[in-house]
Amino acid sequence: MLTRPNALFSEIGTQAIERGLADPVLSAFFETVMTAPRGEVQQGLKPYLPYLSLCSDKMKDGAPPPIFYVGRESGQRTLFGEDWATPTSPASGLRTPDPDLERASAEGYGKALDGTPYYGYARTEVHVNGETFEVAFERLIVAVRPALQSSVRFCAYFGVIQDLRRTS
Amino acid sequence: MHYEYLKRLETYVPEHVRPAATERLDLKAAIDAANLTEMWDMILTLDYGVSDPEQLSPEKRDEFLNVMSLLLQAFDK
């Protein structure tokens, strides 16, 4: 009998994007970031902001950095919902509402913050508002500075949901 | 006398506006103190297309300020 694990997080590497194997919009975003002249990366982000989630560069206890911006068309908004993405009186930084997914996704942020863009594939169960979904997605994470000489960095996350189904 | 009256009107801030305006200034001051001014500017200009939150509609301004509150928390050491 063929079995498969409940969760799979796998780094594919950005070479796959260069070979044309990734989502076209994600690929265009990657090319923009990698080829933008020094100091112009931020302007290049503009058309892709609706698809991006942005988070800080602060990883504590191995957890991914907290999210502060969720694009209007982003995969995380689709998956976790409008209420999660836009808290009306935010009391703390945004975190992925599924702790297992949160833990499993940390490695990609670590690599991006070490200076190497991360591109990978994931298939896993997520628990949102008492419901269970199986989701498959590709994701690209890059670390960017808001200005050329800035001492601050942030992570730009581009996730593309390939499959999403409710399992309970 | 008329001029003095008008001058007082210029500096008058309606009671219902004052808390939100003060909150906004406090948030911007906290963003500056946390060295996140460039992030504020980047998101404001790239996503909202303005250079000052005052140029936004009240709904958009609230949305932007919520993002900035999250930004502050996300970079909290």
Give a quick rundown of the structure.
Chain A: Residues 81-103 are annotated as: Disordered. The complex is a heterodimer of chains A (168) and B (77). Chain A has 168 residues and is an alpha+beta fold.
Could you characterize the architecture of this molecule?
Chain A is an alpha+beta fold and 168 residues long. Chain A contains 7 helices and 6 strands. Chain A has helices at residues 15-18, 24-35, 41-45, 75-80, 82-85, 99-104, 106-113, and strands at 8-11, 52-55, 67-70, 118-128, 131-144, 154-166. Chain A has a 6-stranded antiparallel sheet. In chain A, strand 4 and strand 5 (131-144) form a beta hairpin. The longest helix of chain A is centred in the first third of the chain and has 12 residues, at 24-35. With 77 residues, chain B is mainly alpha-helical. Chain B has 4 helices and no strands. The mean pLDDT of chain B is 83. The longest helix of chain B has 17 residues, at 58-74. Classes of the chains: A alpha+beta (168), B mainly alpha (77). The interface between A and B is medium-sized, with 28 and 20 residues.
Q: Mean of the pLDDT scores of chain A? A: 90
Our count of domains of chain A comes out at 1
Tell me the total number of β-strands of chain B.
0
Q: Which regions of chain A have little confidence, pLDDT < 50, spanning 5+ residues?
A: none
CATH architecture of chain A: 2-Layer Sandwich
- Based on secondary structure, the structural category of chain A is alpha+beta
Adjacency order of strands in the biggest sheet of chain A: 1-4-5-6-2-3
Average pLDDT score of chain B? 83
Task: Determine Rg of chain B (CA atoms, Å).
Answer: 15 Å
Topology of chain A as a string of helices (H) and strands (E): EHHHEEHHHHEEE
